[in-house]
Write a structure and sequence with these properties.
alpha/beta; Rossmann fold; binds 2-phosphoglycolic acid
Length: 238
């Protein structure tokens, strides 16, 4: 595991975007999975700027969406699809991207389709992950299955209460759909990013505490190509 600490969120965003672009330029044709959430938005802004400057072609790789809130679709503010479309996917050829649809009630089929998409592209080459306040990764909540594949999950109470920040209001959302952490772990390269003082305690627990299913992020410490990228605030307790 390598830990890289940037002075502030802007610098972190630039560093992470350069890491992603470096991967894409070196490994065209492979599959990447980029987390939604607020933390990566600056890195996505930088990536789009890099594409506009001709420094990366974002349509030269394939994309697998990490997760989605059940009950929300691409037209809903704060859905993973809406956030990712706005921040990144609208700058990428549509056929390159597969995402979950939180409005499709056949979650089993969605899981199988995403698993087939991942398999048919030779597995994940690169994944960018955030970390939740409870240590979740995607919607791999505390106690998440370590089986390979994709899952419909009951959301943890912390995830439900934090979710307001995406929707601007409280929504009665209880479930999510996600790529399982074991499949993410099988990616050749994993970048885990965090920003801000409020993430400092969970970053400390994830990096310095024991590996435990109660904090899914700890599982990634065993990955031999894990880069943890933090700003100073998120790193302030380690
Ligand atoms: P955030 O979400 O980037 O909005 O903090 C991270 C997460 O919950 O995985």
């Amino acid at each position: 595991m390598t830990v890289e600490i940037s002075n502030n969120y802007n610098e972190l965003s630039i560093q992470v975007s350069e890491k992603i672009a470096g991967y894409i330029n070196a490994m065209p044709g492979t599959l990447v999975c980029l987390a939604a959430g607020n933390t990566p938005l600056g890195a996505f802004r930088e990536l789009v700027a890099m594409q506009e400057r001709g420094e990366v072609d974002l349509s030269s790789v394939w994309y697998a969406g990490l997760d989605e809130w059940i009950g929300l679709g691409p037209g809903d503010v704060g859905s993973c699809a809406q956030v990712m479309n706005e921040a990144l996917y609208k700058h990428i050829s549509k056929e390159r991207i597969r995402i979950f649809d939180g409005l499709d009630s056949d979650e089993e089929k969605q899981c199988r389709d995403m698993e087939n998409w991942i398999k048919s592209h030779g597995g994940l080459g690169f994944t960018l992950l955030g970390i939740g306040m409870n240590g979740h990764i995607g919607f791999n909540e505390p106690g998440a299955s370590d089986a390979e594949g994709c899952f419909l999950v009951d959301l943890d109470d912390i995830t439900k209460s934090v979710s307001k920040k995406y929707f601007g209001k409280e929504l009665p959302i209880a479930k999510g759909i996600t790529i399982g952490w074991r499949t993410l772990f099988n990616a050749g390269n994993v970048v885990l990013m965090a920003s801000g003082k409020e993430k400092a305690p969970i970053v400390k627990a994830a990096l310095q505490g024991p590996v435990t299913p109660d904090i899914p992020a700890t599982q990634f410490k065993k990955h031999n190509k894990l880069t943890v990228m933090l700003d100073k605030d998120a790193a302030s307790l380690i």
